[in-house]
């Protein structure tokens, strides 16, 4: 009985296809068949019902499968224990919100690869809710997310507050008197990201709480396009202050100091339990992005 035989058996039970199992493990179909038959011979039991299509485990096969899973999990824990003090290596899948992909990311990526030369970063950009789902599904290893202070993330995820991200209501420079309340903003309307953007969701909740309607002039994707349209008088926008201040359109924009709406998000590093070396690499990346954005980390209690 070998680990290779157990792995072949578990994969065959999961995929229910000798062809797909062979492709997954990089073996031939006869090699998969031989490994499973060797495991059966070692245990003296029949593990698969070969009269059914797709293949299904026998009653004893299901019990053996569960035990093989336990052994596989224990081996994974053993490897993690041994690798705790090893330098970070391998692929690190990092998720980023749309609003920070233009600023601070390239220097942080260079810093990460310089400090951890054996790490292979893979970056993806999406709305916060989609990135969070990606973490839960195991598609993303760690993500930088913009959520309010004190946000409670799903069970099983670890989170670190990297600092405040002030949001501002932006309008075109010049013109007449500025609105000072959310209600007074209705006449100008909004230039916002599509549904799924956390900033838009926060604005929608604030308007709903006050019994106010939302007037959307345009839905756009992309920071530069949004700010360009606002600068051209297309409506109001809700953007991070650092995005406005670093924009090529900064001279054509101004901030509305609304009396009843001062939104404030935080930048969070969120990930499941990771091997310590990978967790350290993700933390280094998050801290560098936060520093490039000029964020001040909260004081430790």
Automatic annotation (TrEMBL):
<keyword id="KW-0804">Transcription</keyword>
<dbReference type="Pfam" id="PF00126">
    <property type="entry name" value="HTH_1"/>
</dbReference>
<protein>
    <submittedName>
        <fullName>LysR family transcriptional regulator</fullName>
    </submittedName>
</protein>
<keyword id="KW-0805">Transcription regulation</keyword>
<feature type="domain" description="HTH lysR-type">
    <location>
        <begin position="1"/>
        <end position="58"/>
    </location>
</feature>
<dbReference type="InterPro" id="IPR036388">
    <property type="entry name" value="WH-like_DNA-bd_sf"/>
</dbReference>
<dbReference type="GO" id="GO:0000976">
    <property type="term" value="F:transcription cis-regulatory region binding"/>
</dbReference>
<dbReference type="InterPro" id="IPR000847">
    <property type="entry name" value="LysR_HTH_N"/>
</dbReference>
<dbReference type="InterPro" id="IPR005119">
    <property type="entry name" value="LysR_subst-bd"/>
</dbReference>
<dbReference type="Pfam" id="PF03466">
    <property type="entry name" value="LysR_substrate"/>
</dbReference>
<keyword id="KW-0238">DNA-binding</keyword>
<dbReference type="InterPro" id="IPR036390">
    <property type="entry name" value="WH_DNA-bd_sf"/>
</dbReference>
<comment type="similarity">
    <text>Belongs to the LysR transcriptional regulatory family.</text>
</comment>
<dbReference type="GO" id="GO:0003700">
    <property type="term" value="F:DNA-binding transcription factor activity"/>
</dbReference>
<keyword id="KW-0614">Plasmid</keyword>
């Amino acid at each position: 009985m070998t680990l290779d035989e157990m792995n072949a058996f578990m994969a065959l039970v999961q995929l229910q296809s000798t062809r797909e199992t062979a492709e997954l493990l990089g073996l031939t179909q006869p090699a998969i068949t031989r490994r499973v038959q060797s495991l059966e011979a070692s245990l003296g039991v029949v593990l698969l019902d070969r009269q059914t299509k797709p293949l299904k485990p026998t009653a004893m096969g299901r019990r053996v499968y569960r035990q093989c899973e336990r052994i596989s999990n224990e081996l994974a824990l053993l490897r993690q224990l041994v690798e705790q003090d090893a330098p970070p290596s391998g692929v690190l899948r990092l998720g980023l919100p749309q609003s920070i992909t233009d600023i601070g990311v390239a220097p942080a990526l260079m810093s990460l690869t310089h400090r951890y030369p054996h790490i292979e970063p893979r970056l993806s950009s999406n709305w916060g809710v989609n990135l969070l789902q990606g973490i839960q599904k195991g598609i993303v290893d760690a993500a930088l997310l913009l959520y309010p202070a004190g946000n409670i993330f799903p069970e099983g995820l670890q989170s670190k507050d990297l600092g405040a991200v002030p949001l501002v209501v932006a309008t075109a420079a010049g013109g007449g008197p500025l609105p000072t309340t959310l209600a007074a903003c209705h006449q100008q309307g909004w230039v916002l990201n599509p549904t799924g953007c956390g900033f838009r969701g926060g604005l929608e909740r604030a308007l709903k709480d006050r019994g106010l309607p939302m007037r959307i002039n345009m839905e756009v994707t992309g920071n530069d396009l949004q700010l360009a349209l606002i600068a051209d008088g297309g409506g109001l926008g809700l953007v991070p202050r650092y995005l406005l201040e670093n924009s090529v359109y900064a001279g054509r924009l101004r901030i509305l100091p609304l009396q009843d709406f001062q939104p404030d998000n935080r930048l969070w590093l969120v990930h499941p339990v990771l091997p310590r070396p990978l967790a350290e690499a993700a933390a280094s990346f998050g801290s560098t992005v936060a520093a490039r954005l000029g964020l001040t980390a909260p004081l430790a209690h």
